[in-house]
Amino acid sequence: MVTGNLARKLQPEKxxxxxxxxxDPLKYTSVALSEVYSNxxxxxxxxxxxxxxxxxxxxxxxxxxxxxxxxxxxLVKDAFVRSRFKRIYVEKGEGIPFFQPSSITEIYPKPTKYxxxxxxxxxxxxxxxxxxLLMSVSGTIGKCSIVGKTLDNxxxxxxxxxxxxxxxxxVGYIYAYFCTPIGQQMLQTNNYGAVVQHIEPEHLKNxxxxxxxxxxxxxxxxxxxxxxxxxxxxxxxxxxxxQILYEELQLPPIEQLKPTYFDKDIDLRNYTTKLSExxxxxxxxxxxxxxxxxxxxxxxxxxxxKKIGDKEISQKIVLAGxxxxxxxxxxxxxxxxxxxxxxxLNPSNIKYLSVDQHAKRIVKELQLxxxxxxxxxSGTIGKxxxxxxxxxxxxLNQHVMRIVPATDDIAxxxxxxxxxxxxxxxxxxxxxxxxxDEIDDQQLAQVVIPLLKNESRQKExxxxxxxxxxxxxxxYLKEREAAKMMEEILK
Length: 491
Prior knowledge:
Helix content: 25-40%
Structural class: alpha+beta
Number of helices: 13
């Protein structure tokens, strides 16, 4: 005889099926009528962001109280942007290096354009000074950086907010605050939670910040300053390594190369290519005289010239395949980012890739290891970085290739060479695609690398780069320690 209880156990369990196309759970909150009137009588929900209101509540109820960032009791002494001006762009070597706001979060920002000294603008007024806090105010707003030795006296675009603190330890404290999700919420929204499309200096007067005791502010500031000092030290080592490379190969600045054209009497770039050097490429950009001049000079000065794909140089080059991604929260996934954040010390806007759904692909194609060389291969081609220790077990998307060095004894040297203007020309000559530029792993494997006649100098280059990479890891740890201290204040 079957009992009732047993009969119920034999029935199949009902499993709840979650529809992946279902909308997100409904979010709701109450809004006071006074808030509606104060917010220009706006009635749309986006003007009263829940996350922003929660962030504001946390700051208002933190253990140390709060102050307005820029006010009588605030931490900001002055904040400003420069006026717009008409730019006169010139070639590299003919003008002043000109930096864009998007580069401020890079480990080693480089100028992308050059402006003429005849440009009608106060050049000195565009220069940033050591100790300033810089902030992007349009596009992707809220990116922050502190001016250290690397950027001191560099010329930046007008649309970049420059901020000075009242006390010597305020700037690092403000920077650490904006490194937290709560700080970013406060920065990117107004008092009622509406997303800000453009930051003006006056916007800082409405932002509140925890008012921690001075000793805590000083500790956080010092950690941030130490982080930027370590970045500067690493950049100096990279410069020293590149200088040795240029000296050993006797390479002039690339803008001084004088390519030879077929017929100099006509006002048109024209040149010939040998059939043996065609490489089945019929696009003119692959066979430019500049590229030929680069190959000639390194072949004359190097001990030998090998290809990146040579087994003495690399174990393999990994180009991940395209795939449908499943994102999860940070507890159930691994950090996942792309070429846009490749040059950042602590990549921004990280997503988390599901380990359960993508375990095999992560191990085979995506996972990073220390001292790998990452090269962007889609969109903006030829950005290069060496993987620091804190990126280990993180993942890069399919728009970035990974070079696995043969050993650590060559890893730093590979990076140093691929990071030069000379190697950049050899990488981008392989570009194909009519809409989105691309290169692949086979083409990167064919890019040449010159080995030095003086092996001790080559080792010195390699060691300097690896030392610089370790300093960047230490810089990351300092910044994370400061951010955690700020997060504790906000709890």
